[in-house]
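=== Structural record ===
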Amino acid sequence: MILPVVLCGGSGTRLWPLSRKSYPKQFIPFLGHGSLLQETILRLREIPECAPSILVASEQHRFIVAEQLRAIDVAPGSIILEPSARNTAPAVASAAFYAMESSGDPLLLVLPSDHVVRDPVVLGAAVEAGRPAAEAGMLVTFGIHPSAPETGYGYIRAGRPVPGSDGVYSVDAFVEKPDQKTAASYLADGSYFWNSGIFLFRASRYLEDLALFAPDIHKACLAAYENAVKDLDFLRLGVREFAACPSNSVDYAVMERTDRAAVVPMDPGWSDLGSWSALLDISPRDDAGNALLGDVIAQGTRNCYLRSGHRLLAVLGVQDLVVVETSDAVLVAHRDRVQDIKEIVKRLQDEKRPEAVDHRRVFRPWGSYEGVDASERFQVKRITVNPGAVLSLQMHHHRAEHWIVVRGTAKVTKGDETFLLTEDQSTYIPLGTVHRLENPGVIPLDLIEVQTGSYLGEDDIIRFEDLYGRHEPDVTQKSQNGPKVKGK
């Protein structure tokens, strides 16, 4: 049996402004189909004898992961939540401990959730080729036949064929990202392959080598797993134990140190989608070499990636540019500089600008909300509540709210009252009133919320009940309604 481990962490800063911390690139449908995560899960159909996947995700993204799986009708084996980002080696270790307890000692197929694979059949064949070596105790990785002297990828140098396997080679070396001249020599050599970050190995063998080469990671992850807590459909790793874990990748922690590394070369139409330029390379183009997405008019323009999400984008007389429009930000960059977009994101973070973290549309476990207008002492939001979803029972100290239903049916709790609102009906929630919003219907509930008050921040929330485990009760604060909980 092969047990897929899908790694859902990462912030995807180089694809800003579409990819942001609260909604990074793995959850976005860049090529007009499903999201990168959904495509990763669906391509596992080409892998024989695959069990339901283990997904390792950030605590922050747990409901996005669950909803995207529900949308493609896939039930996971487990969703393991990392309380903090610690890179791939701890993420895989946590999944390996879970696999050892739940499934014996399976082969783990480790996959990033944010890559593109245009030919899943080729990937499936490569996994089958690497399977005998993995079953024999090798730690197998998958190398991509290089199509250009790419300086943005690490490389793997293949050695001799592994006895008893077809198309599997020992690893002579893992090589850091080279300069242009060195990358050209790798391409001419023929024994160098791009490092895909995909692995196949037994859970026990990975943990054995992790304990040998990175015992501090092994110890911390074991403690975090032993102190994990089941919460709804998620497994929460121990917070303090995982925070004590060093941050390191599978390559650095294990693969570059072990003498049991093997590589299977393959060409499945792979891209790690590490920049807007990489996305242009795999996108359909017009006769002038432009990739056009959304409401775009390009005149006298060549070799550009042009994407509009919310309004008309008109581009005239330019070439080799990336222009990406979202509801609250526009990126204009030369193709040769797109790897530096992370510096823009860092500047936004340093200035504590919300565009570094959130889109104007913010997703919540019950649905989403989107800012429409704001000024001093008021703001307007469009709120969408999924069928059957329930917001927390809450109260605000500094704002009142007006709700107007524009689609669907709302069940409203306001103080001691509970009542239904339908389209074109409204209600007013005075400051300090305990309230709750529910969607009892079978279609999404859309409403307009007008907030007024002296402070309109999202942290002005006292929660009394919440179905989604978004807090721990603060038992030191009491009221006639029970324990209060501050924050999101």
Notes: The chain is about 25% helix and 35% strand. The first helix runs from residue 36 to 42.
